[in-house]
Amino acid sequence: MNITTLQVVLPLYCVFLFVFSLQIPKTMTQGNCSSVTEFILLGFSDHPKLQIPLFVLFLLIYLITLVGNLGMILLIWVDSRLQTPMYFFLSNLNLSFLDICYSLSIVPRLLSDLLAERKVISYAACLTQFYFYSVFATTECYLLAVMAYDRYVAICNPLFYTVVMSPRVCGLLVAGSYMAGSLNSLVHMSIAFQLAFCGPNVINHFYCDGPLLYALSCSDTHVNDMVMFVLVGFNMIMTNLAILISYAYILDTILRRIQSAEGRRKALSTCASHLMAVTIFYGSAASMYSRPSSRHSQNLDKVASVFYTVVTPMLNPLIYSLRNKEVKDTLRKIRIALSGIVLQNLSGVL
């Protein structure tokens, strides 16, 4: 599977996910005796005076997220110097694309609820949000691990980098990340088919998440809780292990094989952006999912959730652009070109 094929297949695959997810809630409604038709989201805060300030804050973050990630995709597309495996994993249908989708699955609902007196989400919309959120979150975990492997090859085996990280290999790694995210979500949804919701319908959160949904079910949710704990634990252990092993080899190479201070500085600079993104994403996710749901502190969970669902998608393009010489050079060229166009138009008018 080459990159061009991937760019055609993945959008179609995402459309399939969307259509399929719309059918999931209908199937679940027909398959159990649920009497609940909607859920009430308590939101990020219940203080009336904070609703407008929070709306402005999250709207600003949302706009920066969209502009930053779309801008990153555009920069990599227009500059041939940035069309390498490292930047391929950042653009197109990869990290920047995932961050946009990730944000779209959470933030619009959060913004609308901040302005609404009654924060209601339908049964179907709640389950659909959980489905998409699970797909994109898990996919991003595996993609971050893939990017760590890419850095390992670039620093530890630079002479074979273009051979090892060929377009076909890059395409397979990205496709594998999407498949892992999809399978993870399908497992959660398949066992959620068995749940009935016939009692309380208040979710103390700003989006629909699995453990909180399970807590409201009047069915036995031990299997759901265990599967959630095992799958999330497995995904985090496997991806973190891949990242740790990659960086262990990178550190060994920097200390033993790279002798010059400039070479070491350049190697560390190459990894710094990825390490920062990984720390923010996995750190906040671990604080949310590393314990069984019955032991969660929901207020702390909301804060952690804001970091990996709202803040992280905004920070990723900033981290990778502000700490990257090639991206900054491209931005400078575009700024100079735009300034020239503006000055030319102004001189023509005058």
Automatic annotation (TrEMBL):
A molecular-function term among this protein's GO annotations: G protein-coupled receptor activity
Keywords, in A-Z order: Cell membrane, G-protein coupled receptor, Membrane, Olfaction, Receptor, Sensory transduction, Transducer, Transmembrane, Transmembrane helix
Pfam families, sorted: 7tm_4
Domain of life: Eukaryota
Residue ranges of the TM segments: 6-24, 54-78, 84-108, 120-139, 227-250, 271-291, 303-322
Domain G-protein coupled receptors family 1 profile: 68-320
Gene3D superfamilies in the cross-refs: Rhodopsin 7-helix transmembrane proteins
One Gene Ontology CC term in the entry: plasma membrane
Membrane topology note: Multi-pass membrane protein
Subcellular location as annotated: Cell membrane; Membrane
UniProt-listed InterPro entries: GPCR_Rhodpsn, GPCR_Rhodpsn_7TM, Olfact_rcpt
Main location: membrane
Function: Odorant receptor.
Family designation: Belongs to the G-protein coupled receptor 1 family.
Name of the molecule in the record: Olfactory receptor
